[in-house]
Specification:
Elements lengths: L4 E3 L4 H8 L4 E4 L5 H6 L7 E4 L9 E4 L2 E5 L4 H7 L4 H7 L5 H4 L4 H7 L6 H8 L2 E4 L3 E3 H4 L14 E7 L3 E8 L6 E10 L2 E7 L7 E2 L1 H9 L4 H4 L17 H20 L1
Parallel strand pairs: 1-3, 2-3
Antiparallel strand pairs: 4-5, 5-8, 6-7, 6-8, 9-10, 10-11, 11-12
Helix pairs in contact: 3-4
């Protein structure tokens, strides 16, 4: 790594002030940033750790809304988000125990890795991403591979999930990284069915609108059977699988997620 200073503020006010320094960068769980620093692909002069800010942590329920602090780890979400079983189950599948006990939901959503699980949960739930300055609907937040609507050094402070009637997440896991080769999150709530796909597209997480339309008419795995898979030309093609293979998996994982949600 290059040399850098590390500061560990205990309030959002102090964190925002620290991030105002030239070349400062926020550090949440560090599961992506630390390897990036080791490869010398980032050169911050100051890392601003968010791990000591109590207001960024915790899971709470208010009516039909589950709110998770941006600094809450995957393991904590898995253990404490029982009001939303589909989301808790997703968090329990992320990485390995070391990753789950360090990585945070805010860090994952800020990074928006094209194969990460939480973007599918947020988009598939119609969640609201809250920052230190504003709020975004998930449909407006994700803007492509590793791209979001966040401004530089804007901090994800919380995520608000409407709790649906039914929901489930299924992923075809790449065994070495445990990222999703293709992952599908489905939910059925008051505003209808949402289907979000991660790991597959060159544009990052996306909603499969054709499946949503079919499932709004009949929320059953059979409703997806008659659909054509998304175009393989729009999908990631690499040593783990071709675009056409990933497109096929989108349909297969959607059917399995619906069956699990109905289970």
């Amino acid at each position: 790594m290059y040399s850098f200073d590390l500061v560990r503020p205990t309030s959002m006010e102090d964190a925002v002030a620290a991030l105002g320094q030239e070349d400062a960068q926020p550090l949440s769980g560090g599961q992506t940033l630390i390897p990036t620093l080791k490869q010398r692909l980032a050169m911050p002069s100051t890392l601003v750790s968010l791990s000591a800010i109590a207001e960024l942590k915790g899971v709470s329920v208010d009516g039909n809304t589950l709110t998770i602090g941006g600094g809450t780890t995957h393991a904590e979400v898995a253990a404490e988000a029982g009001a939303y079983p589909g989301l808790a189950a997703l968090a329990g599948q992320i990485g390995d125990p070391a990753v789950r006990n360090r990585g945070t939901i805010g860090g994952s959503l800020a990074n928006n890795d094209p194969s990460a699980c939480y973007p599918a949960a947020a988009l598939g739930s119609g969640a609201t991403i809250v920052t230190n300055t504003r709020e975004f609907a998930a449909d407006d937040y994700f803007q492509g591979m590793f791209a979001t609507a966040l401004d530089e050094n804007e901090i994800v402070t919380a995520v608000k999930f409407p709790i649906p009637e039914k929901a489930a997440y299924i992923k075809f896991q790449q065994p070495a990284s445990r990222f999703a080769l293709v992952g599908v999150f489905v939910s059925k709530g008051a505003d209808g069915v949402r289907v979000a796909v991660t790991g597959a597209s060159n544009d990052g997480v996306f909603r499969w609108s054709e499946a949503e339309e079919a499932l709004n008419g009949n929320f059953a795995a059979d409703a997806v059977e008659a659909l054509s898979a998304p175009s393989g030309a729009d999908m990631i093609s690499d040593l783990h699988g071709s675009g056409d293979y990933r497109a096929h998996l989108v349909k297969v994982m959607t059917k399995r997620a619906v069956a699990k949600a109905n289970g």
